[in-house]
Write a structure and sequence with these properties.
The chain is an alpha+beta fold and 287 residues long. Helix content is 23%, strand content 32%. The protein has two domains: 2-78, Monooxygenase (Up-down Bundle), CATH 1.20.1280; 99-282, Galactose-binding domain-like (Jelly Rolls, Sandwich), CATH 2.60.120.260.
């Protein structure tokens, strides 16, 4: 550390900017000599995404009033609404990588504008003004998309549908649902998922409709031999999430990522699914 202090300030800035926000915070906490340098705008601007001015323009003008790049960085880490409140943007405070949550209004949901099938409403614990609840339909198809250019480069992302199920939910466990992710025209991954972990109910449905369900499930799983249907997990915000798959952003070329969940082969009625949105976030253990 003593040798580092002998280097010119611009050299120290360059070295520190090649680390990570977490490293800088640790350094500032343990080395008083470098604490001032570690707070410099040059270093913290290097941790901000290259398009941070565009992100600010899509959010609140109040972000322009941040006194330093460090303050702006941590404001962006606390999640901000962008694009007229239809998306949430967030920076990972450890790595500086970007993530988004697309609201239900930003998703393409078949028949979502028909009140016979779907109901738009305010949900108390939702971050968005509106969520949407499935009344009843046999054709369930949900798709979200985002430009690769909006994400961090050379990062492996996971896509997660954020949802809950109402007490009146039905038909969501009868057979697995299909998920897929495409990047441009290329299929990146596909899988099958269950939206609930109600094994007892699944077993009853299998007993009642064994032959039909077995045939349809084998049709859904065709080409996915060896894959195990994924199950949802709980989130700290009180919602559930199911992984739709993951993809690599690469050099963030001008392509669109499409993420989908559907169940259109069972021809049985489904209801009670409440959708808040779709999250695209970096996988912590993969780059």
């Amino acid at each position: 550390m003593e040798n580092l202090n002998k280097l010119p300030d611009d050299c120290i800035n360059t070295i520190l900017s090649s680390t990570s926000p977490r490293d800088i915070c640790r350094l500032a906490a343990t080395c008083s000599e470098l604490r001032l340098v570690a707070a410099s705008d040059f270093i913290w601007e290097s941790f901000l995404p290259h398009d941070y001015t565009d992100i600010i323009s899509r959010a609140s003008p109040l972000l322009m009033k941040c006194d330093s790049m460090k303050e702006l960085f941590f404001v962006l880490c606390n999640s901000i609404f962008v694009d007229d409140g239809k998306k949430i943007f967030n920076l990972d405070r450890n790595s500086g990588r970007k993530s988004y949550i697309l609201s239900a209004r930003e998703l393409t949901i078949i028949w979502a504008t028909n009140p016979l099938y779907w109901c738009w409403k305010n949900v108390t614990k939702s971050r968005f003004d509106e969520s949407v609840e499935l009344r009843t339909t046999w054709w369930l198809e949900i798709e979200g998309s985002i430009s690769i250019k909006l994400l961090s480069p050379n990062t492996t992302y996971g896509a997660y549908l954020i949802f809950n199920v109402s007490e009146r939910a039905f038909g969501l466990d009868t057979m697995p649902m299909e998920t897929s992710i495409t990047l441009g025209n290329d299929l990146v991954c596909n899988n099958t998922v269950y939206l609930r972990q109600d094994y007892k109910k699944q077993q009853i449905q299998w007993l009642l409709f064994y032959n039909r369900t077995k045939t349809l499930t084998s049709r859904v799983n065709q080409g996915l031999e060896g894959s195990v249907p994924m199950l949802p997990g709980s989130r700290q915000d009180g919602w559930m999430e199911i992984e739709l798959g993951h993809f690599y952003s690469g050099k963030c070329i001008d392509k669109e990522v499409k993420m989908s969940l559907k169940e259109i082969k069972g021809h049985h009625l489904k209801g009670g699914l409440i959708i808040e949105g779709l999250e695209i976030r970096p996988l912590t253990n993969l780059v």
